[in-house]
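Dear H.,

Thanks for agreeing to be a second pair of eyes. The structure we're designing against is below in token form, covering all 376 positions.
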């Protein structure tokens, strides 16, 4: 019996009766976009985050893109972010015509190395876009202080961090805006694409709602902005409302699975994820590191354990970004992408599956004692 990297069917089966009924209600109701489920989900997600405005959109990428657009970031502007992330973070910046300026990441949390902020700043810098990668928050205090000092917006990429917290505050509620993805594999996942921008600024939320709906203002067919079409649909919103009620439980289950990995792999010589004292990790991914990553991955694969690499090629090394980043060196990013490996973790993963992953890894470590050398 193998261990899948993720199995979205199990989560659906658990909620099948409720999801099928909700989807049927939407279909029978005849309202498929801009309806009561979207409105209710925005209210419920905002309340779950501790009281913020929510503007739903069609994807996490669009959440980042429309947040930048609403903040009037555009051609000629620069946005400081990280290269060690899903390429979508940078794509959103490129889409408004701005230039991403890439910082290296912290060797422990794999999030933005805030030491580099001042050096990355120019008179074109308009915003900072930290990513709460793998479900661990970026160190927000230095970022907020830097942004405050220079009048910059802070756009939190929370696509992997639903339920993560920084010093007790929910990820997404610390910066100017927080941007979430509801892609099926995320911690709160729809059965299709979806995303949301959250903010305490109700004017900004209203502008993003308008931008996502062609730029229409209060009055129908009267456009105040040259907007986009990026709406969450009613079926996805209905499904998200059902899953939101379980999100805290899903986070707890991810944390329990991570605790099992931590116990099972302690002393293996592999580098395990850290949870800093100021952060709550929601383990969107459980990422280990070893200098013998490729061999470990194929060893696990022959034992039926599926793993992935997030991400093998950092954005500044992507062919699509070669024209902007040629010659750029980010030492930590470039080293860790050769050593990282994402183990299976999802709310429904069971003890037998976790044990199989752990036993397989320990088998590899036993056969390859030089694995005990700390990574380069
Ligand atoms: C998934 C992801 C996105 C993009 O979300 P989509 O809904 O797929 O557009 C952006 N940033 C990060 C860090 C992600 O993991």
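And this is the sequence the design step returned. I haven't edited it by hand at all.
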């Amino acid at each position: 019996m193998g261990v899948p990297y993720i199995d979205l069917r199990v989560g659906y089966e658990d909620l099948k009766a409720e999801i099928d009924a909700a989807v049927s209600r939407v279909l029978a109701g005849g309202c498929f976009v801009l309806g009561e489920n979207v409105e209710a989900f925005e209210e419920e997600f905002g309340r779950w985050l501790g009281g913020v405005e929510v503007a739903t959109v069609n994807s996490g990428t669009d959440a980042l893109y429309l947040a930048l657009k609403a903040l009037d970031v555009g051609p000629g502007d620069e946005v400081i972010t990280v290269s060690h992330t899903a390429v979508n973070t940078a794509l959103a910046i490129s889409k408004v015509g701005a230039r991403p300026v890439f910082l290296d990441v912290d060797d422990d949390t794999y999030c933005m190395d805030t030491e580099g902020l001042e050096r990355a700043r120019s008179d074109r810098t308009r915003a900072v876009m930290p990513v709460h990668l793998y479900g661990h928050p970026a160190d927000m205090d230095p970022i907020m202080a830097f942004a405050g000092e220079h009048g910059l917006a802070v756009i939190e990429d929370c696509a992997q961090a639903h339920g993560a917290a920084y010093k007790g505050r929910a990820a997404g509620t610390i910066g100017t805006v927080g941007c979430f993805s509801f892609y099926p594999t995320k911690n709160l996942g729809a059965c299709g694409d979806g995303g949301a921008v959250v903010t305490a600024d109700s004017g900004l939320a209203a502008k993003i709602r308008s931008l996502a709906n062609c730029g229409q203002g209060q009055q129908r067919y009267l456009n105040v902005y040259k907007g986009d079409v990026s709406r969450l649909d009613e079926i996805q919103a209905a499904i998200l409302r059902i899953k939101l009620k379980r999100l805290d439980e899903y986070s707890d289950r991810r944390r329990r699975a991570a605790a099992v990995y931590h116990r099972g792999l302690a002393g293996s010589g592999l580098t395990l994820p850290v949870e800093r004292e100021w952060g709550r990790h929601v383990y969107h991914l459980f990422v280990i590191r070893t200098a013998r990553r490729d061999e470990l991955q194929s060893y696990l694969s022959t034992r039926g354990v599926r793993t992935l690499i997030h991400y093998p090629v950092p954005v500044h090394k992507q062919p699509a970004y070669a024209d902007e980043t040629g010659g750029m060196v980010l030492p930590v990013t470039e080293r860790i992408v050769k050593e990282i490996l994402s183990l299976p973790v999802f709310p429904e993963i069971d003890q037998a599956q976790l044990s199989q992953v752990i036993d397989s890894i320990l088998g590899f470590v036993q056969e390859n004692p030089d694995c005990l050398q700390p990574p380069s």
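Two observations from my side: The first helix runs from residue 8 to 29. The domain at 247-372 is CATH 3.90.1150.10 (Aspartate Aminotransferase, domain 1).

Warmly,
E.
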